[in-house]
Amino acid sequence: MQLAGRVAVITGAAGGIGTALARRFAAEGAAGIVLSDLDLEAVTALAGGLPVDALGVRTDVTVEDEVRALVDAALERYGRIDLFCSNAGITSGIGLEDGGDAWQRSWEVNVRAHVYGARAVLPAMLDRGEGYLLQTCSAAGLLTAVGDAPYTVTKHAAVGFAEWLSITYGDRGIRVSALCPQGVDTPMLRDGLAVGHVGAKVTAAAGAVLSPEDVAEAVVAGLADERFLILPHQEVATYLAHKTQDPDRWLGGMRRLAAGLG
């Protein structure tokens, strides 16, 4: 997909990767961009600063009616949605200990929000015979997130859902990409490093920490090629190959890496 003249919706757009995607899509000449987040003030300000027509919408992606309202707002303003980016996500930093509602919240934001987005946007896309879904899944969905069990499990589920979408709708004009970056310089990673979270340390040590703008550049290239896996960190492909070729050796290496940084 070339983004010039296209209409895109981005959830989790108030900062980090979401904001970088919005700015990069605008630079590519998008016809319209709908920016969604819990922080309405931030996405409204971002929309007003873009060089293309844009709209900020407050959306809680864990509430299906609000996701439907987001899609309806985009369709009302632009008449179509070419690209829907399910980008909102959260970490928890817990393992087996009781994290309150952390497991449920991770499931709602990292998985069910993707389901709600697809459920809301697919009917109109299928009627037109074309559309693109971009799911932000994280390299944790292909590998693991040391020190964060809910994030690991839900991001694996997100990749699985993206695969299912591609298999089910790929022959009906729906293209799907799973965005799986590793370390990205966002508040999520910086906060983890500040408190000494072992998962954040492993992420930072496993490869280069990219800027959100680097990730957005990789997304534009990946969408143009219509690749299922968009890997801003190319080393993730190598790690994944090692994992699938010899899981026991890979697991042992991950244990040593975690132990050295714990």
TrEMBL record:
GO molecular function, a single term: oxidoreductase activity
SUPFAM superfamilies reported for this sequence: NAD(P)-binding Rossmann-fold domains
Stored InterPro entries: NAD(P)-bd_dom_sf, Sc_DH/Rdtase_CS, SDR_fam
This protein's UniProt keywords: Oxidoreductase
Keyword flag Oxidoreductase: yes
Similarity annotation: Belongs to the short-chain dehydrogenases/reductases (SDR) family.
Annotated PANTHER family: 3-OXOACYL-(ACYL-CARRIER-PROTEIN) REDUCTASE (AFU_ORTHOLOGUE AFUA_6G11210), SHORT-CHAIN DEHYDROGENASE_REDUCTASE FAMILY PROTEIN
Record's protein name: Dehydrogenase
Lineage: Bacteria, Bacillati, Actinomycetota, Actinomycetes, Micromonosporales
